[in-house]
Design brief:
Length: 173
């Protein structure tokens, strides 16, 4: 999860589900923001970028199977400015992951996107509980989660580093 400082807020746009046509735009987003993301979360490694077409097809297959759901926030020019994901969907629960472009960070996009993802998860996908984990150092993402209605559950591990686990009950929202 990524957040940071920024300038004036862009209008909040609805999330749209990722499709096959989004492969190049998602890869461009990940590539352009790789250094920024690496400051607060683990780097995905060169293989992720080199083999992204295969990875994109695998993600779409997981989405089709109902074990994951992937959404994008795009700007007025159609460029991806945020990714909001549900993964490990089982028994009415899912884990949340998100990334926001450095140029859009600090403008409320992450909070709005996570709130929108919660609405989709509860109303469209019928999920009851969402969890999210952050590294202890990623204070911005922890603030986003709390603003979006998540509560701290306890310690966890994120990519081999100490972290914090958050959860939200979608039924009572």
């Amino acid at each position: 999860m990524t957040a940071g400082g920024g300038a004036a807020a862009e209008p909040v746009r609805p999330l749209r589900r990722v499709g096959p046509e989004d492969e190049a735009a998602v890869l461009a987003f990940e590539t352009a923001n790789r250094a920024s993301f690496t400051r607060s979360i683990s780097d995905r490694g060169d293989a992720f970028f080199e083999q992204y077409p295969l990875r994109h097809r695998e993600l779409l297959a997981a989405q089709q199977a109902g074990t994951s759901a992937f959404y994008l926030a795009v700007d007025d020019q159609g460029a991806v400015v945020g990714r909001f994901n549900l993964y490990d969907i089982t028994d009415a629960t899912a884990a949340v992951g998100y990334r926001v472009a450095e140029r859009a960070a600090g403008q409320g996009l992450a909070t709005a996107g996570v709130r929108a993802l919660c609405a989709i998860a509860g109303h469209e996908l019928g999920l009851a509980t969402l969890t999210a984990a952050t590294s202890n150092e990623n204070l911005a993402s922890q603030r986003v989660l709390v603003k979006a209605g998540f509560a701290y559950v306890g310690p966890t591990e994120v990519a081999g580093r100490p972290g914090k686990l958050f959860s939200t009950d979608l039924v009572s929202r």
